[in-house]
Design a protein that fits this description.
Number of domains of chain A: 1
Number of strands of chain B: 9
Strand order of the largest sheet of chain A: 2-1-3-4-5
Strand order of the largest sheet of chain B: 2-5-4-6-7
CATH architecture of chain B: 2-Layer Sandwich
CATH superfamily of chain A: Response regulator
CATH class of chain A: Alpha Beta
Number of helices of chain A: 6
Distance between the termini of chain B: 20 Å
Distance between the termini of chain A: 13 Å
Strand content of chain B: 25-35%
Low-confidence stretches of chain B: none
Shape of chain A: globular
Helix content of chain B: 10-25%
Largest sheet of chain A: 5 strands, parallel
Number of helices of chain B: 2
Oligomer: heterodimer
Number of strands of chain A: 5
Shape of chain B: globular
CATH topology of chain B: 60s Ribosomal Protein L30, Chain: A
Radius of gyration of chain A: 13 Å
Strand content of chain A: 15-25%
């Protein structure tokens, strides 16, 4: 069975490294993108099994990228988890309306991240 | 809706008050347990992400077993009587269509944890809106247990 692909979209190098470290022990291929526009491009190019999407990013915000992915037949059903700050979490309703599947609040807890990823990739 | 003070509850947190609050939270696969004492009008709510703490990571109200016991403890500390408490529970959605046939997705495990713990504490569940396919926006009134849910 092919290794499942997880796309992490975040403009913070620290967050990308932390998330990669948290997922390192899991059998996933991790792909990264550093803003919303790159996230959309990488998703279309790699067909990930799950996307972890930051909210506030340059070029295209996480909510804009979410809408773009949902409006594309190739990525309309890929599970997307929004990764928000506490302040952004209060507007996560926008994310659900736009089609996100779940959300995680920073600072991300590794047990929570892995549980949500496993749940959404069907393990 | 009456004019109560407002609070927003983040995942993994608890809110308890002896004064009336309208507490808002947003749930996907997470579950919120709401407890209130209709006699003293003390109430509270948690929002947990994972079923039970199994020794890995940090023990916190992110886990259902800890979140429910902590909520119960803090309500009794504020003066509510355990035998008066009533419960409502919300959330635990399976947010992916592809996995709806699975018996034990994360949302289901969270719901089961809440049901089992409330039963073991002999606290009646008088209302619930759990499972399903969509996230929820929940507003809970701590003083009288009123709750509104909007499917997202």
């Amino acid at each position: 069975m092919a290794m499942r692909k997880i796309l992490i979209v975040d403009d913070s190098e620290t967050m990308l490294k932390v998330a990669q470290m948290m997922l390192a022990k899991e059998p996933y291929e991790v792909i990264v993108a550093r803003d919303g526009a790159e996230g959309v491009a990488r998703a279309l190019e790699t067909n990930p099994d799950l996307i972890l999407m930051d909210v506030m990013m340059p070029n295209m915000t996480g909510f804009e990228a979410l809408r773009a992915l949902r409006n594309n037949s190739q990525t309309s059903t890929v599970p997307i988890v929004m990764v928000t700050t506490q302040a952004e979490a209060e507007s996560i309703e926008t994310g659900y309306v736009s089609g996100c599947n779940d959300y995680i609040v920073k600072p991300v807890d590794s047990v929570e991240l892995i549980a949500k990823v496993r749940n959404l990739v069907g393990e | 809706m009456s004019e109560l003070s407002k609070a927003y509850l983040h995942p993994g947190q608890l809110f308890v008050s002896a004064e009336g609050y309208a507490v808002t939270t947003i749930l996907g696969s997470c579950v919120a347990v709401c407890l209130w004492d209709p006699v003293t009008k003390i109430g509270g709510i948690n929002h947990f992400l994972l079923p039970s703490f199994g020794g890995e990571g940090i023990a916190s109200p992110r886990y259902g077993n800890i979140a429910i016991k902590e909520l119960l403890y803090r309500l009794t500390q504020l003066g509510s009587q355990k035998h008066n408490l009533l419960a409502k529970m919300f959330g635990g959605a399976c947010v992916l269509e592809a996995f709806r046939q699975r018996q034990h997705h994360l949302g289901t495990k969270n719901i089961e944890t809440a049901q089992e713990l409330l039963k073991s504490e002999s606290i009646p569940v008088v209302g619930h809106d759990v499972g399903g396919q969509r996230g929820r926006k929940l507003i809970f009134h701590t003083d009288d247990g009123a709750a509104w849910v909007k499917a997202l």
